[in-house]
Amino acid sequence: MISPSSSSGSEGEEEMQMTPLQKHVAFFDRNNDGIIYPSETYRGFRAIGSGVALSAVSALFINGFLSPKTSPGKFPSPLLPIYVKNIHKGKHGSDSGVYDSEGRFVASKFEEIFQKHAKTNPNALTSKELMEMLRANRDPKDYSGWLASWTEWKVFYMLCKDKDGLLQKETVRAVYDGNIFLKMEAERKSSKKKA
Ligand code: HEM
Ligand SMILES: [Ca+2]
């Protein structure tokens, strides 16, 4: 579906053609059909170790916000599907600009985060530096964008900071291609086995 031009189309090939933003959300498309229902967002959050409350609230808000923006038809569906192929339409203001308008990864913008804000440690952000970045990214009066960015980055920080309270550069890199979610799921599975 994502690559209508590929005729032989194995799943691997399709994945190669996804934009980084599509990969960021594809983790939550638990059955890989190109659509993310709220139940899938919920299960994705649970799979990376979030609790019932955060997972349920996130599913409701993320699907409520992104379903109308990414749906192909004129009328939004009450089932709140998110269409992976249109996920770039879900971009909001006051973001870092690391994803461009098509959902591609802009390396210079990624480097800029650390050049500008990683003052204590060149390869990581403290909680205070993260807040400074969020403030610097704010477009004037873009209140919904402020809230969206704040939520994304705060949840990210909460789930992925290291033992010293730092958000490592490689961790931030991995959120942009979605690999962080695969890693968290794998770690959670292996720690469950040990317990
Ligand atoms: C624990 C789960 C998640 C975390 C920690 C997370 C974190 C992030 C972060 C840090 C960004 C970068 C924002 C920026 O560059 O300023 C981002 C962007 C984005 N995320 Fe997520 N995300 C999560 C789940 C999801 C889900 C489930 C969806 C939708 C199905 C989603 C859709 C998006 C979109 C559309 C953007 C682009 C926003 C923009 O650039 O304007 N994310 N996310
Ligand atoms: Ca699905």
TrEMBL record:
GO molecular function per UniProt: calcium ion binding; monooxygenase activity
SUPFAM superfamilies (UniProt xref): EF-hand
Xref: PANTHER family: INACTIVE PEROXYGENASE-LIKE PROTEIN-RELATED (PTHR31495:SF1), PEROXYGENASE 3-RELATED (PTHR31495)
Membership in a protein family: Belongs to the caleosin family.
Protein name stated in the entry: EF-hand domain-containing protein
Organism, scientific name: Musa balbisiana
Classification lineage: Eukaryota, Viridiplantae, Streptophyta, Embryophyta, Tracheophyta
